[in-house]
Amino acid sequence: MPVSLAIRPEFTPFDPLSALNWIKGEADWLAIRFVEEDKHRRTARNGRPEHNSLVFERGVMIEVLVDGHIAYAATSDLSKVGINKATRAAVSNARSAASIRAFNSCIEQRPASRGEYRTEAASWLDSVSLAEFSDRLIEATRRLGVTDQIVTATAEATLVETRMRYVSTHGSDVFQHTLLTGQHFGAIAQNGIETQHRSLNGPTARCVQGGMETFDWDRIFAECERVGSEAMALLNAEDCPDETLDIILAPDQMLLQIHESIGHPLELDRILGDERNYAGWSFVKQNDFGSLQYGSPLMNVSFDPTLTGEFASYAFDDGGTLASREWLIKEGLLLRGLGSLESQNRLGLPGVANFRSASWNRAPIDRMANINLEPGVSALADMISSIQRGVYMEANRSWSIDDYRNKFQFGCEYGRLIEEGRLTRVLKNPNYRGVTIPFWHSLSAVGNTDCFEVFGTPFCGKGEPNQMIRVGHASPACLFRSVEVFGGGA
Amino acid sequence: MSFRKSAMDHFDRLSEACLDAIGEGEQLTVSLAAEEQQYFRFNNSKVRQSTAVNQSRLNLCIQSCHRRVVFGCDLTGNLDQDKATAVSLISRGRGELRELPEDPFVTALINHGESHQHHTGQLPEPKALFEQISTLTNGSDFTGLYAGGPQIRASCNSEGMRHNFSTESFFLDYSLFTVNAGSENKAVKSLYAGREWETHAFEKSVAESRERLNLLKKDSQPLAPGHYRVFFAPAAVESLLALFSWGALSYRAWKKGDSALKRLIEGEVQLSPLFSLRENFSLGLTPGFNSLGEVAPAQLDVIIKGILGSLLINSRTAREFGVTSNGAESDEGLRSLEMDTGELEESDILNALNTGIYVSNLHYLNWSDLLNARITGMTRFACFWVKNGEIIAPIKDLRFDESLYRAFGTELEAVTRTANITMKTDTYIQRSVGGSKVPGMLVRDFRFTL
Q: pTM here?
């Protein structure tokens, strides 16, 4: 019988509710978050398998409320002794820190919630054989290698199945079961010293929630052939000009633009200064909500954990708050930040259900989830035809922004010059830079639903201790006027 | 029983059971990454969040007939339960090896010998730590992260190899904030780290930070984008050098067409004769063995006076491209880097800079043009405009876009006589081991763009 991708190693069963009973008298309030996550990474390169690895994460985070302060302890020792030891460590730390706590914690910051969430997947990991899946990845690398000048053709798949149960002494009982997939298919073309990368939507963008049906191999193979050809075209392309021009950003670059210049600055814990020592602060101030015109009136941005198939959809955050869709920016006006009940309490502002942790071993903090730019009314062809001279850019390859989220510089894999309303020559090294608020005010057209695409990234880093979390971003293609663009060179 | 002793005893027994479970023709590497840490996060001298973490991650690398799979799992600490899990993974691994296509670049395991390295420490109790930080930073806008506790790395294989490394240490990665005369937020960044917490050393660190903070209280000097002389303090140089580990010095990345230093590697350009870089495990910050237990040389010259010494090569790369491995980790990045010092005395830095920018820290670096080793990023924390050897004022942060070939090549004017040893402060998944020894450097022409 063939080996399927599904795997359940022999683990001793663990019941979080029973464990809660072992420790319930130790603090004013307690919660246990039990996480089991199976993470597959399967890769192939140049017609051969490269990496086959699986990691099984399994442990608990215990939260205790003592003297108005919440402290955390994480352990992978799921025995009664282990749970008790971790609880005592959390209680001791809470008691020691209570007199110098940064803010008051209370039970209202952890609503009593009950419910379940499960990814809508047509086929789970048990529906695909390992051998067949490996063969497909290898075939994808062959399709990428359209000529001998493609020196590297890579196919990578990440499959993540997570089961999380959150129980508390005041009656929360939440279970969420998700299946996430990530794909990367990329080619590197080389001719002498010149080297160019091209991939399907950038190295990490193809991240969605769903089952193995997200691997539509016929379509992927066709796209790999296109990408291989585009890598070759880039080898012989001219550099992006150094000019101030109109640009159209494809959805696979918009995801990064949204992430860095909308998502992060709106995180309430950044505005509170929690991240000042690491990820940074924010140019957004407490009194900007409801008054700051963030961008042009065409700009409508939502926090949407309800969009089926997007990478960071869920029903509850890791503090038990019921997740709902909320407007962050409406017609360019800043309305709401990305903050959990804790941060909402500290700032006196509304927020969203975004109290999230990277795994069982990290405490939740304010994170992005799905942050989307809603579709407008413009057809992509009309946006292109409205430009006299400009650049169309696809697929992020470089990103950098300052610690207040003002000055950014981003680069893409693939550009096309726009001349007199038409896409013309291929451009290599298309880059652009700007400042967040003026840039979003230069938004002049937002694509319609025909050019709206859903992407994500597994690599949003933040927090002390550090946490890498998965986020989703959906957007149509967008037109920005008068942006500083430039190419490569010494 | 200490965490180190119980975790190592557990690993010894568990790895024995794992090695007993493999069959004819199979090879196995068993490795452990474990920690018992206290993570305390501060904002405005108050405790923002505290997390105690006890975690042990087992990795099993199973191979046979030119096929390899790697499985990892979190251990419970109960020997029977962990044995059952590990043996079930080995069984699954055997099934996968039967199904996967052949991978010609899998290398046979060998006995890489034996080593044992343990560093003990003296760490503060949480209550005492909270009180000290609260008291000593009172009146400052102090924010940061304390991480402290034992860390373990161990590896053994079916050919008899056995290495283990443990360390008990802490770091307090912090910044002090102020509001300057122009109502801007300004901050200094500091790191107090070691194996023994000493109150007077922490006091000294805070006092020095406060002194530097005073320099930031003036209104900022806005600077137009353009070319400037720049002195990079060691923390900023460390940020620039981190890019060398993003594939730039990887043999595999070079062969894949993915190295930013392709022109250097292929002899088209050289870096400055003032620039030498090596991997130096004798700093004692990180184990000299990688995740497969392969041992790197105690020192490996990577760049010698501006010319390539050796790229980093792991065993798989060596097999694929017919070269010799130097025990690099799978990412072929630097784990314990040391940059050679130079002749510039600390006391002469401002005079040597004369008129330019003193950069203490950088932020969010990334490639902007791989082929030309060009990077972009931001200045951050305490950066100053210096005129005629005098600090004039803090600057408004600037974006740069510059090539490593210029910064470490044609434009490198001087390197400081002293270097700072710093401990890694990364804490993704687990706290990192490792660190670096890096001096400051003076660059005669550096390009700022925004």
A: 0.97
